[in-house]
Amino acid sequence: MSKIPRPSKPHPLPPFEYMLRNRRADFGDPPSIHLAALIERNERARQKREQARFEKEQNQDEEELPRKRPGSNNNPVNTYSTPVEND
């Protein structure tokens, strides 16, 4: 007769690496000092970019940029002339 495989019992606690990775999510621990500084720096940079973009959009609205004028019909579009072959 063959042995019937028994299901292995799960460990009462997850692996240590899993705990390290998900500790903040599971227990709500505050981020490390380094991570908090990194998040704050990124947030300040994002706010600065958004402010610069907002000011740029307002400046564009205030002074309308000149439109490119279409070329007049007097100027030929293609000024390159091919060399004439010898007769």
What features would you highlight for this structure?
mainly alpha, 48% helix, 87 residues, 2 helices
Q: Which structural class do you get from the secondary structure elements?
A: mainly alpha
Estimate the helix proportion, in percent: 40-55%
Percent of residues in beta strands?
under 5%
Structure summary, number of beta strands: 0
Radius of gyration: 34 Å
Major sheet summary line: none
Principal-axis shape: elongated
Unreliable stretches (pLDDT < 50, length at least 5) are none
Number of helical regions: 2
Report on the architecture of this protein.
Residues 44-59 have a biased composition (Basic and acidic residues). Residues 71-87 have a biased composition (Polar residues). Residues 44-87 are annotated as: Disordered. This protein is mostly helical and 87 residues long. Helix content is 48%, strand content 0%. The termini are far apart. The mean pLDDT is 71.
Brief write-up:
It contains 2 helices and no strands.
Write the layout of secondary structure elements.
Blueprint: H1 16-27, H2 33-62
Biased composition (Polar residues): 71-87
Region (Disordered): 44-87
Biased composition (Basic and acidic residues): 44-59
